Amino acid sequence: MKKHQLKKQILQKELQIKKLNLHYSSSDFCNQLYNTLILEKAVLKKELENLEKKPLVEKLKKTFFKREKLICDYFKS
Length: 77
Fold this sequence. Notes:
Blueprint: H1 2-21, H2 28-52, H3 55-64
Helix pairs in contact: 1-2
């Protein structure tokens, strides 16, 4: 159920981004909102990616290889 909700939220963000893309350079507010939506979408995609990974392997990675999250971690393809 969580995966389905994340996919739905990602699609909603994509739709919002497409609509806002028409007004992207018209104002600072639109630019800021556009950037926020891009970041939120990246975070949702990362959460979905983490759900699809094997839980045991990921748990072991977290235990033995702790590191801070970087903003670039959310934009990996």
